[in-house]
């Protein structure tokens, strides 16, 4: 699996320096100064969310338009993600891209997998599931669990039909095959439900897969998600194997050192 980097040019109206100056209108400076002050735009990386064997000569991306409010309560959106969203597919806009090796190694078909990908963190795992579904057509593959999380079932349940298809009728994510697909909808009820709550509900199954040598892959927001998910894994190992949380924590660290616990997170 690879990541893809993008490089592109923008019009000055979306320049971050201009946004800051809008919040502080008393600061006046000639345009030439601004151009010298703002650093060059950085490239943005995106996980490839398709499998090459299933979509030859294509690369699919799963991009969320990032939004936030400035301390002065102005609504802002991410430079690259909103630019990508603004491109008209009917126009032949050229986007300069290149490929970079990602930090999530492609798993062999015999490796049981526990995948955790809330929000756009599902991107690399769509490719994993597509790949395994193709491999499973010729030889039986190892079980795979995918835990997805989003705000609302009706608004941002990315690739819902895709996950449903592969979790039914003996699909690679089906419980019949020892796997499973579990979704956490954080804002569909008064209290938050996150991916870590879902994996704890599947504690016995998760421990069984870990005992069979499963690898854990986590992708998505780098805020609190990776550490909360790590803590949930420690709770599972502690509860299921009857050891203290400290011993469970060392067990997970050993898993990481052995190249069986990967995190690819971004802010
Ligand atoms: C390995 C890797 C894989 C990735 N895969 C994906 C993926 O599959 N899908 C995906 O959607 N993203 C992915 N990302 C994230 C992606 O690279 C971008 O970071 C993301 O799209 C936001 O870029 P942007 O240009 O839209 O936002 P930017 O304009 O870069 O803003 C990003 C953040 O910076 C902050 N910020 C910027 N300017 C200001 C300001 N003036 N004031 C306050 N805060 C500010 C905000 O918090 C904002 O959320 C990945 C990142 C990495 C490193
Ligand atoms: N998803 C949307 O509908 C939407 C709409 C507009 C803009 N955006 C923008 O797109 C960016 C990416 O959004 P995204 O939806 O792909 O990903 P995201 O912000 O990472 O959220 C994905 C899911 O993870 C949940 N989450 C938050 N903290 C968590 C934690 N500590 N542990 C586990 N799960 C946690 C979120 O719940 P909560 O957020 O409920 O806490 C949400 O359900 C956001 O920063 C936002 O600016 C998203």
- Low-confidence runs of at least 5 consecutive residues: 5-12
Proportion of helical residues = 25-40%
If helices are DSSP runs of H or I spanning 4 or more residues, what is the number of helices? Answer: 9
Instruction: Return the structural class.
Output: alpha/beta
Summed up, the domain count is 2
Radius of gyration over all CA atoms, rounded:
21 Å
C-alpha end-to-end distance: 20 Å
Mean pLDDT comes to: 92
The CATH class label of the largest domain is Alpha Beta
Q: Assign the CATH superfamily of the largest domain.
A: Nucleotide-binding domain of ferredoxin-NADP reductase (FNR) module
> Which kinds of small molecule does this entry bind, naming each only once?
flavin-adenine dinucleotide, NADP nicotinamide-adenine-dinucleotide phosphate
- Counting copies of identical and different chains, the oligomeric state is single chain
Order of helices and strands: EHHEEEHEEHEHEHHEHHE
Shape: globular
Strand order of the largest sheet: 8-7-6-9-10
Identify the CATH architecture of the largest domain.
3-Layer(aba) Sandwich
- Looking at the structure, the CATH topology of the largest domain is Rossmann fold
């Amino acid at each position: 699996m690879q990541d893809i980097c993008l490089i592109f040019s923008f019009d000055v109206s979306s320049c971050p320096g201009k946004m800051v100056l809008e919040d502080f209108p008393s600061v006046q400076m000639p345009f030439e100064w601004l151009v010298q002050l703002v650093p060059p735009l950085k490239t943005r990386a995106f996980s490839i969310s398709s499998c090459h064997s299933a979509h030859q000569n294509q690369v699919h991306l799963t991009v969320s338009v990032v939004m936030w409010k400035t301390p002065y309560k102005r609504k802002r959106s991410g430079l690259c993600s909103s630019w990508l969203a603004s491109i008209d597919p009917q126009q032949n806009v050229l986007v300069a891209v290149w490929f970079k090796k990602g930090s999530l190694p492609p798993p062999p078909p015999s490796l049981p997998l526990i995948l955790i990908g809330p929000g756009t963190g599902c991107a690399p795992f769509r490719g994993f599931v597509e790949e395994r579904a193709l491999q499973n057509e010729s030889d039986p593959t190892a079980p795979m669990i995918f835990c997805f999380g989003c705000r609302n079932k009706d608004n941002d349940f990315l690739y819902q039909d895709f996950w449903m298809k592969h979790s039914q009728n003996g699909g690679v994510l089906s419980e019949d095959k020892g796997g499973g697909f579990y979704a956490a909808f954080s804002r569909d009820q008064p209290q938050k439900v996150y991916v870590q709550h879902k994996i704890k509900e599947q504690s016995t199954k998760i421990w069984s897969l870990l005992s069979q040598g499963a690898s854990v892959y986590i992708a998505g927001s780098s805020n609190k998600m990776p550490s909360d998910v790590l803590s949930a894994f420690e709770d599972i190992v502690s509860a299921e194997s009857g050891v203290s949380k400290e011993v469970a924590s060392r067990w997970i660290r050993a898993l990481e050192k052995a190249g069986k616990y990967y995190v690819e997170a971004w802010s």
